[in-house]
Design brief:
single chain, about 400 residues, five-stranded antiparallel sheet, 13 helices
Length: about 400
Amino acid sequence: MKKTVLRKYAHLIAKCGVNVQKGQEVFISAGLDQPDFVKMVAEECYKLGAKRVVIDWYYSPMEKINIRYCSVKTLGNLTEYQKARFEHYLKEIPCRIYIDSDDPDGLRGINQNKMLKIQQKRYPQTKPYTDALENKYQWCIAAAPGEAWAKKLFPSLSKHQAVEKLWEAILSTSRVDDDPVTAWERHNADLKDRCDHLNSLSIEKLHYTSSNGTDFTVGMIPEAIFKGGGDTSLQGIFFNPNIPSEECFISPKRGVAEGKVVATMPLSYEGQLIEDFWIRFENGKAVEWHAEKNEQLLKNIITADEGSAYLGECALVPYDSPIRESGLLFYNTLFDENAACHLALGMGFADTIRNFEEKTLEECRKLGINDSMNHVDFMIGCADLSIDAVTTSGDIVPIFRNGTWAF
């Protein structure tokens, strides 16, 4: 891929993604697949005035070895230097960039129960820090192709050809054109208009139906609003947390969801794929589920903690989104969730509460925002999906027809 194009993408992530401010620190988490591109992103952050850029490299085969050989106690306990880093985050409030290039099958074969125990042990130790950082910092998840990921999508091509093909798909769906920043300004304006319309309806609940068996109703929090595209931190800085992003999303009311939802795409989770699955809800909680592949992993997600069986997000994405029109199944949630409507099990977003900045995190959760160690998106959109809004006045308003916007 031409360096001039990658430079535009790197600038987009630094400027439009996290929107680095002069004097801010930036922490970048990235795999080993595209070091030159990661260097470009770091340089673009410095050009915007970053005080310091720190790269945290990760390598999923090493994570697999650690899980195999280390004890639950060792991996489940925060070390003193890990605690010190969290304290540093609280003091400095740095930007966080995540450049995803993971192999969708990178953790295949790991001991799933051991991994769950590690996560359950760590979560109570990290939660005070993550709660304290909630909504205060700018963050952005973007992607770069890894060889294994590229070959998963394009198995008939050579590694080099597959990587180039995946670069093309990432850049196209991320709106990296002649002027990506302006393209994103237009895109954010469109998403805002749609959210404004949804928020004007006073929606009490959403009803989803499709021919694959989805028949599902979920309740809204009266104080909640739909959001989409860019966001504003509690420091007053506008940023785009996901590149790409096609969704208008809201956090539903915990405990108000009934019916069955059928997944329409594989779910890539912790380097493994869950395929052909459905979940049934009663009184807001997942009470029954089945997956043709990796059902135990699906169970681990749903039963990880009390909040994991409840919903934290409802996201509306048109079936004719650029990701869907690419014709690719990316095996990566960042992209696949933006190809179709999706739900998320687990943690909800406090900043979907109107005037959330005037409330504590606990007050937002008392209104119905779910709390959990997880936030796992799974896709339910399809070509014949219909969604109706039931308003507080009892009106039925069509929101989606034939998988896309009805307005």
